[in-house]
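lol ok so funny story. i was supposed to be doing the assay writeup but got distracted and ended up predicting the structure for this chain instead. priorities right. anyway since i did it might as well share w the group, maybe its usefull for someone
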Amino acid sequence: MKKTSRSRKAGPPEPRACAHLARMFRALAHPARIRLIRRLMEGDCCVSEAEACLKISQPNVSQHLKILKTAGLVAGRRSGAKICYRLIDPRVERVLRDLSPKESPDEEHHRNE
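and the output, tada:
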């Protein structure tokens, strides 16, 4: 009987890789941070832009960005008085694209009526 790639069992994942993955998912475990990442998927963003886009306070944006930065998902660079952020972990973009619904809940609700 020929073995397929599905029948092969990979060894257990490295604890370090699992720890990084867990940090990534914890960092994404808030709707505001997911919205922030989605904004960063469009390009670099300064705190003031994120504040206006997400309609949350500047201290709140900064706190969410700190969590994303600590998790290694975003990086900031100073531009004068502003700090602009960008995504640095391409896996985050793939995860959000793969797990996001193809249509909004409102569109799905109207379609099912």
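The domain at 15-96 is CATH 1.10.10.10 (Arc Repressor Mutant, subunit A). The chain has a mean pLDDT of 84.
back to the writeup now i swear
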